């Protein structure tokens, strides 16, 4: 496959993940790359991923070797998840997710784990950064630590604060350890922080405490009774007593939980991206869904203009000056001066500034931003960011 590498969107201890584009189809996908001489782990991940077929597992798109910058790289091609990771979503939502979203996300992750376990594979590194948000739902990704059940020869792996006690002690790592890590991930969705985060000065202390203290992660007291019971089933000290993924899918905590697709119910406006659905609103606790037909373009733009406490209340992050919570919408701009656009009725002239017509590479938003009265939209473009402030003319 002929393809072009784009920007880097993730980097681990050995491999880097970039956005890429196929020349023939124009498809956007993700490529995970490492030096060919150090690619044994990535090639093992390729063998596992290429054998899987599940909506809740990141899709396999192929593999290959490329010559770049005077060296050889081994590349694993995967489905691109434009919504980023679950960690990104927690941060975008102000540090926690509401109960309806947590139940939906937990169900999606469990469906992926149930599939992996049914084909004899333990993921071994379940955590929020390894859960991605694609256009059609959550996807379990990064199978670099995955192994076949019963493979006692391979060393234990993963991230210390998500490790089950038996893994921390170096005894075993199987399906039950994935369930423990799922419980830790649910706690992170509830609280905005991984269990044990900040409690220990180094990984060795964390592993010793997790493996030998007899303590489990603290279950948030503000969770519902069903939620606390669900976590209790995930975080049992004895791995043989933990519920399986299949059993957890039938737990009352997940009864009535809606799938990712169901949040965008038929009859509502079609979302323009995976970030456009109402369940991404951290303050929406009931009847989540995509914006309704009564949510006019003018109202959506008005919300963009919120600042100070109003912005914090609606969006869940501090203010427009913060760099952390922006969603990348265009990433190959050189730094430019602020541009002032004037939007009016559809028969008005195209948006212009003093330098002329706006770059034609911009996706047209003219129809969506047709107002009955002129509105001034100030767009400040910086590398990897786009900020918008709106006020009446």
Task: Give a verbal description of the structure.
One of its GO terms (biological process) is signal transduction. This is Protein kinase domain-containing protein. Belongs to the protein kinase superfamily. InterPro entries: Kinase-like_dom_sf, Plant_MAPKKK, Prot_kinase_dom, Protein_kinase_ATP_BS, Ser/Thr_kinase_AS. ATP binds at residue 32. This protein is α+β, with helices and mostly antiparallel strands. The chain has three domains: 3-79, Phosphorylase Kinase, domain 1, CATH 3.30.200.20; 86-254, Transferase(Phosphotransferase) domain 1 (Transferase(Phosphotransferase), domain 1, Orthogonal Bundle), CATH 1.10.510; 296-392, no CATH class. The chain contains ten helices and 14 strands. It has helices at 40-49, 86-92, 99-118, 165-168, 175-191, 203-212, 225-234, 245-248, 297-304, 308-315; strands at residues 3-11, 16-22, 28-35, 60-68, 71-79, 121-122, 131-134, 137-140, 147-148, 339-343, 352-353, 356-357, 375-382, 385-392. The strands form five sheets. The protein has a five-stranded antiparallel beta sheet, covered by helices on one side. A three-stranded antiparallel beta sheet has the order 10-13-14. Strand 4 and strand 5 form a beta hairpin. The chain is globular. The termini are far apart. The relative contact order is 0.09. Mean pLDDT is 74; it is low at 264-276, 278-295 and 306-393.
């Amino acid at each position: 496959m002929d393809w072009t590498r784009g920007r880097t969107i993730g980097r681990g201890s050995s491999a880097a993940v970039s956005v890429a584009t196929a020349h023939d189809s124009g498809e956007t996908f993700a490529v995970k790359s490492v030096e060919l001489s150090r690619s044994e782990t990535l090639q093992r991940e390729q063998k596992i991923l290429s054998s899987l077929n599940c909506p809740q597992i990141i899709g396999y798109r192929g593999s290959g070797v490329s010559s770049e910058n005077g060296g050889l790289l081994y590349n694993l091609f995967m489905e691109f998840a434009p919504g980023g990771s679950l960690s990104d979503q927690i941060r975008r939502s102000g540090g926690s997710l509401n109960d309806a979203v947590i139940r939906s996300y937990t169900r999606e992750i469990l469906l992926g784990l149930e599939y992996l376990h049914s084909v004899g594979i333990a993921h071994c590194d379940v955590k929020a950064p390894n859960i991605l948000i694609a256009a059609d739902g959550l996807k379990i990704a990064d199978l670099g630590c995955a192994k076949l059940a019963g493979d006692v020869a391979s060393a234990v792996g993963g991230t210390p604060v998500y490790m089950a006690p038996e893994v921390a002690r170096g005894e075993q790592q199987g399906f039950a350890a994935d369930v423990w890590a799922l419980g830790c991930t649910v706690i992170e969705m509830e609280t905005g922080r991984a269990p044990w985060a900040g409690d220990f000065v180094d990984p060795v202390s964390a592993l010793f405490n997790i493996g030998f203290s007899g303590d489990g992660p603290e279950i948030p007291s503000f969770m519902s009774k069903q939620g606390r019971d669900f976590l209790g089933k995930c975080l049992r000290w004895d791995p043989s007593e933990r519920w399986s993924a299949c059993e957890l899918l039938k737990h009352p905590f997940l009864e009535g939980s809606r799938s990712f697709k169901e949040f965008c119910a038929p009859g509502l406006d079609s979302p323009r991206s995976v970030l456009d659905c109402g369940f991404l609103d951290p303050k929406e606790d009931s009847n989540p869904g995509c914006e309704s037909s009564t949510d006019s373009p003018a109202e959506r733009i008005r919300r963009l203009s919120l600042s100070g406490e109003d912005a914090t209340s609606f969006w869940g992050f501090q203010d427009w000056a913060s760099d952390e919570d922006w969603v990348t919408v265009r990433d190959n701009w050189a730094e430019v001066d602020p541009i002032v656009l004037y939007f009016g009725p559809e028969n008005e002239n195209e948006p212009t500034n003093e330098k002329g017509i706006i770059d034609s590479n911009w996706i047209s938003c003219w129809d969506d931003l047709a107002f009955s009265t002129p509105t001034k939209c100030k767009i400040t473009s910086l590398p990897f960011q786009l900020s918008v402030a709106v006020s009446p003319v």
